[in-house]
Amino acid sequence: MSGQGHEARSEALWGPRVAALLFLAAGVVVVGWAFAIPARATEQDVGPRAFPLLVGVGLCVAAAFSTVQAFRGADREQADQAREEARITEWRPVATLLALLVGYLFALAPCGYWQSTAVLFTLVARVLGSRKLLRDAAVGLVLALAVYVLFDRLLGIHLPPGIIRLAF
Q1: Could you read off the pLDDT of 41-57 as tens digits, one per residue?
Q2: Global model pTM greater than 0.85
Q3: Helix spans in 40-132 (H)
């Protein structure tokens, strides 16, 4: 193998390594933020730290596996497959979904959880290729309302009620 080919392969390996380390750092940050959430003395078994801790620990575990794999090095076949997949990836839907998530973030508090989530579900289904608008809207509304009732009413984890408040 020529020296130049070895350098290119060595440089190509740093992308996955850096990404894996960044995901690991993100997991550590999420766990740190979870511990920064004040623990309130409640009668509930699950406090406000539970879900952020679960996400942070899960991210750390997944990132640890990715980091080990990235530093072990990928074989040539995997690297070629990754390059081919990156070449044929359609980035427009990815960018659109990212924009929808940012919009959802800003709409959540003023518009409310279940309203924003129902709209998000409908738009995401559309971006991913669904052409059945009424079905998507109905499924999005039912799922958003079910999650809202579960968390807000049954578990006592309050979600933004938004513009239209539920009577129950």
Answers
A1: 556 667 778 888 999 99
A2: no
A3: 50-72, 76-88, 91-111, 113-127
